[in-house]
Amino acid sequence: ERPCSVPGGPRGVCRTGDVIVGGLFPVHERARSVTNDTSQRCDGFDVGAFLQAHVMVYSIGLINKSPMLPNLTLGYEMYDTCRDVTMAIKATLRLMEDRVNPTEDCLHLRNEGTASGRGVKAVIGERHSEISIAVARLLALPLIPQISYGSTSELLSRKSKFPSFLRTVPSDKHQTKAMAKLIKTLNWESVGIIGSEDEYGKFGVESLIDNMSACLDFKVILPTVVSREEDRDLLKKLMKRLGESTAEVIVIFTKESNAKVVLEEAIGLGIINKTWIASDSWSTSGEIRGLGGIQKIGKVYGFIAKRNTVPGFEEHVRNFTAQPTSEDSFFCDHLNLYTCSRETNLTGQRPGNCSLVDADECGASIQRLADYIDRDESYAVYLAVNVIAQALHRLLKCDYIKCERNATFSARELLEEVKQVNFTVDNITDIAFDPNGDPSLGYDILVWDTTDGKVSLKEMGEYAPSGDIVMPEHLISEYGNVT
């Protein structure tokens, strides 16, 4: 493993291999202004995104140790997008470069029709729809397959615009149908909806309104990024609307950071005992579930793509030792870059001048990191790596002893194989893509349980790919609006 960065752009980490897979992860929440040619500095360390990035590293390691690609090694080149479109574009342009030697400064662009053993052959990412859309427009030119683990906007299903985009999470088209079905199943008759101006929030709100039969009590569209300081008037009006609303349920369909601001305001003003539906962007958010007073807001239901654990990953993290010679130096390299000392918390607050962490401190930080492993987007990253490996297995004609073809092939060839995958991961999850690049996965329906004073996640049912809500009758009676 070695650091790799784009001058004036994002930081990254790379490992050589016969086939290179790109990765885009918002390890930080925002970019600072660039003052020189060095790599971009970013603020707001996102623990979840950092762990998801390492799931990609870990999953590639599992493939390399398996007989899936017997005489080939997967490498990677991943960058921190800092949740910024410009940063993601810079990283993508670097991934699209066809380099004779990744350390050389003389670079040239790939001819899309040429089979080459060099360059990135697939990209995993990004997490947010608005960033994936920008990336997908670029990767459509050389037809490099892009597999997102978190972008759910319906817009990305349009193959005329995004021909090389696929994902291991369902489209919001299915999520909004699932929400509408739950609203009908639980007999809620009036609904308030809060969305946002970005692709995720805008298309999600429009789709939900189209699908539901309940009365729309109100609709509020927030800016793409909501700030408690800069959007005081807007939030004041929203809180007034929430306080006066008679809606039986309120849907918040926007990114996690926006939902957090809305709920913090509601808690602060005593707007409590409501019923909420959380979209998949924040339904499992540990940060929001940890807000002071969150138990008072009322009942929260949520949707999340079918979840599972990444086999062995938690144990891998907990058993990690922070030695400089460790093959998993990715962890310590990034903690050195993004954290300071024991005074630094896991949200990236940096107390003044920071020094690099030593091995003991790195190890202690990693032990805490294991508590932040999620079961949704992390698993979607794991699925994406397995999809690429399965497609390579078919493309290179491998038989678990050897591969007949070498790594000289075009990204377009790999894309065609990725589109055709249809297999079961670990005898648990069936994965295949429809013509829009969307997977055949349903949703778990969650309810936030506050019985022990903390907010834990409880599965109360599921939304099947067939379009049916599967939920025990006694729960429908318990949670529904009985008339």
Automatic annotation (TrEMBL):
<dbReference type="InterPro" id="IPR000068">
    <property type="entry name" value="GPCR_3_Ca_sens_rcpt-rel"/>
</dbReference>
<dbReference type="GO" id="GO:0004930">
    <property type="term" value="F:G protein-coupled receptor activity"/>
</dbReference>
<keyword id="KW-0325">Glycoprotein</keyword>
<keyword id="KW-0297">G-protein coupled receptor</keyword>
<keyword id="KW-1015">Disulfide bond</keyword>
<dbReference type="InterPro" id="IPR000337">
    <property type="entry name" value="GPCR_3"/>
</dbReference>
<keyword id="KW-0812">Transmembrane</keyword>
<feature type="domain" description="Receptor ligand binding region">
    <location>
        <begin position="54"/>
        <end position="449"/>
    </location>
</feature>
<protein>
    <recommendedName>
        <fullName>G-protein coupled receptor family C group 6 member A</fullName>
    </recommendedName>
</protein>
<keyword id="KW-1133">Transmembrane helix</keyword>
<dbReference type="GO" id="GO:0005886">
    <property type="term" value="C:plasma membrane"/>
</dbReference>
<dbReference type="InterPro" id="IPR028082">
    <property type="entry name" value="Peripla_BP_I"/>
</dbReference>
<keyword id="KW-1003">Cell membrane</keyword>
<dbReference type="InterPro" id="IPR001828">
    <property type="entry name" value="ANF_lig-bd_rcpt"/>
</dbReference>
<keyword id="KW-0675">Receptor</keyword>
<keyword id="KW-0807">Transducer</keyword>
<comment type="subunit">
    <text>Homodimer; disulfide-linked.</text>
</comment>
<keyword id="KW-0472">Membrane</keyword>
<dbReference type="Pfam" id="PF01094">
    <property type="entry name" value="ANF_receptor"/>
</dbReference>
<keyword id="KW-0732">Signal</keyword>
